[in-house]
User: Fold PH (Pleckstrin Homology) domain-containing protein from Catellatospora aurea.
Amino acid sequence: MSPLPPFRQVALCLLAVGVLLRQAQPFLWEAYGPDRLGYPLALLVGFLLPLLAALVLPYAAYEWFARRHRSRPASFMVRDGGFDAPVSALAGRRIIMFGLLAFAVPVTESGDHGRQPLTDHLMLPLGVMLLLVGGTMVADALRPGPVVRLTPDHLILGGWRRTLVRWDAVARGDALPPAPGDTTFYVREIQPGRVRWHNLPVDLSHVNTVFLIAAVHHYTFHPEHRAAIGTEAELARLRAALSVGGPADPSGSARSRESAASPR
Assistant:
């Protein structure tokens, strides 16, 4: 079991709180509107405060929850005969952000007999569009399992539909590992008669970006080490080969990046 907290589950709970506050805002406006409190106070109590609470509270609570896991270690989890790059706290932030986007438009409107389901010809299609876009992004952030998994035979990209790329099919020497701060990297898979490109979601991984890509390069160019993937001894050897100084060293040296990016 991952030693990391359940980022995605916590984010979903906080998202539910934010959505409820957002959808409750029109009811608060009707209950504490200008006729009852006067316009300035009603604007504050019935509109601004609940809207700010819906937007800020889930993020603030989530950041407090994930504060101890901002630094991504230059190491893998050893599990079930492979090296896992588990999901990072960024997945939870995306769930909250896109979930609030999906429910940005209230689902009710004022009617003759109080609140009723939304029928506005402008807001209804806008709400449906935001729900589809935001819901799709939330579903992507909720994809199960580790973000990336390394096994003796395959590089596995996690998600709703796992993608298995055989090590022998990974193209060599396309690019150097990314510099710190880069969030996108592609792996080129050479198959008979075609070439496939796979996005390596390094930004969603709770493993240092440079270390993760350097490890992929290392096993691409050093097939003799693949059989030992999934053992503590091989992880220690890999970290030494990539010149990682400590369990949570976020950098890795430039020399290790160059050696991982070029065949010996």
Q: What stands out?
A: The mean pLDDT is 80. The radius of gyration is 24 Å. Strands lie at 77-79, 82-85, 108-111, 114-117, 148-150, 154-157, 163-166, 185-191, 194-200.
